[in-house]
Amino acid sequence: MLGARYSVTLPVTSEKPVPLRPVPEAEHSSPFVPGACAKWARDEGISFGDMAVLMVADPLEAAALRQGFAWVGARTKDLDPGIDAPELALILSGASIAIVDSALAPSYARALGRLDRLPPVWWNGPGADFARLDLALAEAAEPDLRSPALPC
Question: Considering the entire predicted model, what is its pTM?
Answer without folding.
Answer: 0.70
